[in-house]
Design goal:
With about 140 residues, the protein is an alpha+beta fold. It has helices spanning about 5-10, 10-20, 35-40, 50-60, 75-80, 95-100, 115-125, 140, and strands spanning about 25-35, 65-70. The protein binds inosine-5'-diphosphate (IDP) and magnesium ion.
Length: about 140
Amino acid sequence: MLKPDAVLRRLIGKTVSRFEERGLKVTAAKIMIINKNLAEKHYSEHSQKPFFRDLVDYITSGPVLAMVIEGEECITLIRKMVGATNPKDAELGTIRGDYAIDTGRNIIHASDSTESATREINLFFNDSEIYKFTIPDEEFIYEEP
Ligand code: IDP
Ligand code: MG
C-alpha cells in the first residue's frame, strides 16, 4: 500500500514501476481513503504501541493506493524492495531508502507474511476486484513458468 504521503508526493508511478520492472504483477489497485475503523483493523497488531494513534492518523490523512502484487516469493522480495521501517536505516536502492526520511512518513506498507497478506487483502478488496492474468514474458522471468 502506498501511504498518503506517497500519493500526495506523486510517487505512484516511480514506486509501482519498480515492482513491475522486477517482474512482479499488479493484480489489483485502487486509490481510497481509509476510515479510522479500517485503519485500526489493518494495524491491529500495533494497537498497544505508543505510535498507534499517530499511525492511524497518518494512514487516514489522505488517499492511499491499495494494491495486490503477485509473484514468486513476492512477500520477501517486496519487503526487501521496500527497505527498513526507519528510512534512515533503509539501504539506498530501496523505496524507503530513496524516497523517505522519517519512520512516521515512510511512504509504503508491505505485508510481512502470507497470513497478513491474506488478512490485509481481504480488508481492502473483494475477490472480483483482483485480476488473474498471465504475462507473455513470464518465461523470461521465471526458469520454470
Ligand atoms: P513496517 O511498515 O516496516 O512493517 P511496522 O513495525 O509493522 O513496520 O510498523 C508499521 C508502521 O508503523 C511503520 O511503517 C511506520 O509507519 C509506523 N511506525 C513503526 N514504528 C514507529 C515508531 O517508532 N514511530 C512512529 N511510527 C512508527
Ligand atoms: Mg508491518
